[in-house]
Amino acid sequence: MSALQNGGATTNQSNWFGQPRGLTILFLTEMWEIFSYYGMRALLVYYMTKQLAFAQEKSSLIYGAYTSMAFFTPILGGILCDRWLGKRRSVIIGGATMAVGHFMMAFEPLFYPALATIALGNGLFMPSLPSQINDLYQPDDPRRGWAYNVYYVGINIGGFLAPLVCGTLGEFYGWHVGFGAAGVGMLLGLLVYLLGGKHLPERQPAPREPGNAQPLRNGKQTFLLLLGVGLAVTVFRGAYEQIGNTVPLWSDAGVDRAFGSMMIPMTWFQSLDPLFVFLMTPPLLALWQRRAQRGKVSSSMRKMAAGALLVATSYLLLALAARFAGDGRAHWLWLLAYSAVFTLGELYVLPTGLGLFARLAPPTLGATTVGAWYLCIFPGSLAAGFVGTLWSHTSHALYFVLLAVLAGIAALLFLTLDTNTRRIEDARAAEIAAAALHRTEVTA
Question: What is the number of domains present in the chain?
Fold first, then answer.
């Protein structure tokens, strides 16, 4: 029986791009899920303000409530996955439910039920898919450290294509056509997952009986650490999530989108973030690898703090653009510069945080712990909705300065957690090394 059938993977198994084939299947599946999510998100605020005639404050609150629920349900879905359904069934059920929700968005009377359906399906899908990454590697496989960044590049291809496809269809052929295209994307993701299942673990190890479970060392400290990271992420998301909330409103009303004789569609700017993700990640990983070879590895919290400061800088660029534009429109190159700096900061924060939660997860609670990472995003996304209501009550320049301050506060919070994070990560690495040595001795 192969290592995959036993629920793990070996470092010498056939691979694509230097990583297990299963990683390609996972990120292609997630690529199409992200296509559906970003495609719907590219249209959501415009649909509410232009088609449903909602006030801007109401639209921001609904946007914040939807995104927060989309990141709240994964903790419940993770528990269902780990205890009863298993990862594969959770992905299939969750993906099918989300596809139904996207198609429901094509009908105005089903607007609120559609958002709820997508959020519920996302609760099963979101923690169950990335938590399978660890199942592809032995604990001592050095490729695990880069796996989440590789995964993050792959899925952002979907984020790049979504505004171009769904946004263009919605903007020029009707919002409901764009929402329908998002549903088709979700179905394609499910198809990839089903056809590529042979490259994924056939079954995960059965959960240990409670009486035989071995408690993790530093379990309480680990929980408190992840809680602290979650609080810092909450503040960060209050600023970060404006990329899909108030920044699109500014790109519509405050940006000169002329490109020669062509007018750039407003939804296309939402492709810049994922475009920069897969342009910037290879050189960023190369930089980190060179630093590691020189013994200058940055800790998780220092990376996340640096990323939060970069996001703060990106909003200061928008504040300058809005200030210089005055009552006119800022050139679209300001938005391009903002997206480049913003994305670089994002690459330091989001994959690092997801990888941290996955590495510190108890062996039988992988999906639940990954769900906890997304649960951290729940209050931050909800806060982003409330922060978005200030858009109509202050100058654009002052509003963007406020977002920069929020991101700066998050950076300080990450730094305060640095010492404890390094201590707990080192302890977990020692546990994994000891377990690997024990398995080797038993095999011998």
Answer: 1
Question: What CATH number is associated with residue 341?
Answer: 1.20.1250.20
H or E segment and range at residue 263: strand 262-263
Strand partners of residue 259: 262
- Tell me if 298 is assigned to some domain: yes
Helix axes 56-80 and 366-388, enclosed angle (nearest 10): 170
What is the full per-residue pLDDT of the chain (444 aa) written as tens digits? 333 333 344 444 456 556 788 989 998 999 999 999 889 988 999 999 999 999 999 999 998 889 888 878 888 898 898 888 989 999 999 999 999 999 999 899 999 999 999 999 999 998 888 888 878 887 667 677 667 777 877 778 888 899 899 999 998 999 999 999 999 999 999 999 999 988 887 655 444 444 444 445 567 888 889 899 999 999 999 999 999 889 999 998 899 999 988 999 888 888 898 889 878 988 988 888 788 788 887 889 999 999 999 999 999 999 999 999 988 899 999 999 999 999 999 999 988 998 888 888 776 777 778 778 877 878 888 888 899 999 999 999 999 999 999 999 999 999 999 999 989 888 877 776 676 666 666 666
Per-residue burial over 17-47, b if 16 or more Cβ lie within 10 Å, else e, is: eebbbbbbbbbbbbbbbbbbbbbbbbbbbbb
Residue 117 located in a structural domain: yes
Instruction: Give the span between the Cα atoms of 169 and 72, in whole angstroms.
Output: 30
Domain that holds residue 23: 18-205+217-443
User: How many alpha carbons fall within 13 Å on the CB side of residue 434?
Assistant: 7
Instruction: Using a cut of 0.70, tell me whether the model's pTM lies above it.
Output: yes
